[in-house]
Every structure is written in structure tokens, then in C-alpha cells.
Write a structure and sequence with these properties.
Length: 412
């Protein structure tokens, strides 16, 4: 975004609080009869469909949707309870040909897909804001900067599995889709003015076509604080405790962190307690959890202690790509030089275009091209490598020659 554009936006009047939806707070759709009427209403509506979903992260297991909000011209706003109406595919079908407008689509698409809603085309207002160069791209910040309204954001982290949902939460949820289409229209105009609209459309198409994310390999390695654990048997304790906690959390439909904090898992791994008494003395474990729960955790520790050496986890997960960049200087100094030159070139171009580096080109793609560059790193060969790694055509056009030059400089 240019200085003139920022100045023009900064000169807008003070933002106006948006306190209530235009048509009031709609009733929650929680019956098949009401859902069928909603399907008919949205089938008769026109234009893009604003879509949002609320989850119960930190309270429930997994990332399922506990409320789905939609708004469309001619249909108004709908708040749907996907617990009472678990199959929303009839609604997904009648709006399937419309453009869906979401904010941070990558967060909501998986849980929407679980209830049968998958867009053929979308517009992501958060991603649009990043490409347009906005410093703050949260929904509230974008609505305030672009449209001049402030949204109340106090209920974003509440337990959306609560039933019945309190009225203030429903008001918040309805307001989240109230201005999404207006924001979309303003951002489309902004992107067009910057010559980036075609780029954004390629990004939106890639988002809409992306398959569901695959399960993580060794998800226990993402335990907060696991970097403190140095020995393989201690890592085995982390793995056993994490797996036990995950099973309990799934069975109880509770967030794993509410069953046992990550810090407690790491503390037990470092101490490798001999019995429940020693375990109860560690941070995060106490007698209030009950003797049976302590025995469950100690049994997990004991399983790790009993493992044969060959069955202990390795210090790092199996590599499926380049090593961490911090190790490049020792493993391959030439590759480290290539990466340094490439990063500097990408940073300069991203600043020139007014967007984050990671939106200009995936950092992982840059690392892979620098670690194993084409035999003859021409713009054409680099373009082929980036395309194979999933880069969009606009990204390839912007950075292939740039990276080819950086690879040559790094080699020198």
C-alpha cells in the first residue's frame, strides 16, 4: 500500500461502534424444519455469501464447528447450530456456485468441510489484506481501517459448545458476518488499484481447491517445551504421556491441555519419576487429580522406561526436506550462502511490493530450491522447480528470475 493510500485511509472519520446486526439477532437454527427454511432462503438470495464458524478451541477436543454464521443479500443472516443440524450439505449445495467470503479461510474450511460445506470459489479478506499491505489483518482491525466501524471482539475465545448460547455471544457472531461482503468489495477495489487482484484470485483459487490437511507426523513433538528434553528415553516419556492424554481427551471431548498441561508432561519427562508419589510432587500433578489418574500417568511413564533402546524415539523427526537453516553452515556452506542471498532478494522485493515475504513466496519453497538447486539455475529451471513445489503462477513470475540470480551469487 502506498503512502498516499495510507494517508487517505488515516484521514477517514473516527470509527463508529457497530453494536447490533441490521435485522437484529436472528434465532439459532436448531431444527430440521428451520434449517430447511434457511436453505430455501439462501437459495433465493443473490451475490456472495459471508461465512464464518465458531469453534471451542481450548475447551473441547478437536476443531469442530459449534456455530456456523452466514449472510447473503436477500436472505439476511443465519446462525446455525451444527450440533443439532450436523449435515449442512444441502445448504452447501444451494450456495455452491456463489463466491464465499471468509476471513482467514484456512482456519474455518476444515471444520466447515466436516459438516458438508465446501466452496467452489472464495474471497479471503485476511489474505486480501496481507497482499494489499495492511499492517494489521484481524477482522476487527480491517473493518475499522477500511469501513470505519469497530466490532466488539470480547467473545472470540469463549466456549462455543455452551448451550444455550448467551445473547451477547450470538450478537458477536452475527456481527462477524455483517460487513464481510462490504469488506470484500472494498478490498477488491484496493487490490485492483494496486495491480494485485489477479494475484489474489490465484491465491483464493488455491485455497478453495486445497485438500483437507493430512494428520501431523509425530504430533507429540509439538508439545510446548519439548526442546528442553535431551535424552531419547525422556522423549519416550513425552510420547507416552502425550498419547495417553490424547486418548483421554478424545474420550471425554475435552481439550488436551485441560486434561494435563504440556508443562506437566515435560516436567515428568525430565524427572522420569519412579512411582506415583514422586510423580505427585512434580508441577502439574497433585493428589487432587485422584489416585486413579496418577496411576494412569505413572503407567505411561513406566511404559517408556520399559522400552528397548531400539524402540526409543529419535531426537528429531524423520527428515522430509532440507535440515533446519541453522545447520546449513556446517552441513553445506554453499547452500547456506545461496539461502542468505535468496532471503535478501525476497525480502527486498516483498518490501517493494508491500506484502509479507511468506505471501510473496513460501519460505519452505525457497529453502528447498536453495538446498537442491537446479543443475543450471536459470529463471526457467527455477520457475519449474517452484511450480512443482506448489507456487502460484504470479509468484513464479515475480521471483523466479530473482531466485536464479541469488543462486548464482550464492554459488560465487
Amino acid at each position: 500500500m502506498t503512502d498516499a493510500q495510507e494517508t487517505a485511509i488515516d484521514e477517514t472519520p473516527a470509527p463508529v461502534p457497530l453494536l447490533d446486526p441490521r435485522e437484529g439477532i436472528p434465532p439459532v437454527i436448531a431444527s430440521q424444519e428451520a434449517f430447511a427454511a434457511t436453505v430455501d432462503a439462501f437459495a433465493s438470495g443473490t451475490g456472495p455469501v459471508a461465512v464464518d464458524a465458531e469453534r471451542a478451541s481450548g475447551y473441547r477436543y478437536g476443531q469442530r464447528a459449534y456455530l456456523v454464521q452466514l449472510r447473503r443479500a436477500g436472505a439476511g443472516t443465519a446462525l446455525i447450530d451444527p450440533v443439532a443440524c450436523p449435515d449442512l450439505s444441502p445448504l452447501g449445495r444451494v450456495i455452491g456456485d456463489a463466491e464465499w467470503v471468509l476471513h482467514a479461510a484456512g482456519q474455518d474450511l476444515p471444520c466447515l468441510g466436516e459438516v458438508g460445506m465446501r466452496p467452489a470459489a472464495l474471497f479471503d479478506t485476511e489474505l486480501a489484506g496481507r497482499l494489499a499491505g495492511f499492517a494489521r489483518v484481524g477482522l476487527g482491525a480491517m473493518v475499522e481501517k477500511v469501513l470505519g466501524y469497530t466490532l466488539e471482539k470480547g467473545h472470540s475465545a469463549v466456549d462455543w459448545s455452551t448451550r444455550p448460547l448467551p445473547e451477547p455471544w450470538l450478537r458477536y457472531a452475527a456481527l462477524d458476518v455483517e460487513l464481510l461482503v462490504d469488506l470484500r468489495d472494498a478490498l477488491e477495489e484496493e487490490l485492483a488499484g494496486q495491480g494485485k487482484l489477479a494475484w489474489a484470485r490465484q491465491e483464493f483459487s488455491a485455497l478453495a481447491a486445497a485438500p483437507p490437511p493430512l494428520p501431523r507426523v509425530d504430533p507429540w513433538r509439538r508439545t510446548s517445551g519439548v526442546h528442553k528434553v535431551r535424552r531419547r528415553r525422556q522423549l519416550a516419556v513425552v510420547r507416552e504421556l502425550w498419547t495417553t492424554r490424547d486418548r483421554i481427551a478424545r474420550e471425554r471431548d475435552v481439550s488436551p491441555g485441560r486434561v494435563l498441561p504440556d508443562a506437566a508432561i515435560v516436567a515428568a519427562a525430565l524427572a522420569v519419576p519412579a512411582d506415583t508419589r514422586a510423580l505427585a510432587a512434580l508441577p502439574g500433578f497433585n493428589q487432587r487429580a485422584g489416585r486413579a489418574r496418577l496411576e494412569t500417568w505413572q503407567a505411561a511413564v513406566d511404559r517408556a522406561k520399559a522400552l528397548a533402546e531400539r524402540d526409543l524415539p529419535q531426537h528429531t523427526a524423520p527428515a522430509h526436506g532440507p535440515p533446519p537453516p541453522r545447520a546449513w553452515a556446517d552441513k553445506d556452506p554453499a547452500a547456506a550462502a545461496r539461502l542468505s542471498a535468496a532471503r535478501a532478494a525476497v525480502t527486498a522485493l516483498a518490501e517493494e511490493l508491500g506484502m509479507p515475504q511468506e505471501n510473496l513466496v513460501s519460505p519452505d519453497s525457497v529453502r528447498r530450491v536453495c538446498w537442491e538447486p537446479p543443475a543450471d539455475p536459470t529463471p526457467q529451471s527455477v520457475a519449474q522447480a517452484l511450480t512443482a513445489l506448489g507456487a502460484r503462477p504470479w509468484q513464479v513470475e515475480q521471483v523466479s528470475a530473482l531466485l536464479a540470480g541469488a543462486l548464482a551469487r550464492g554459488a560465487g
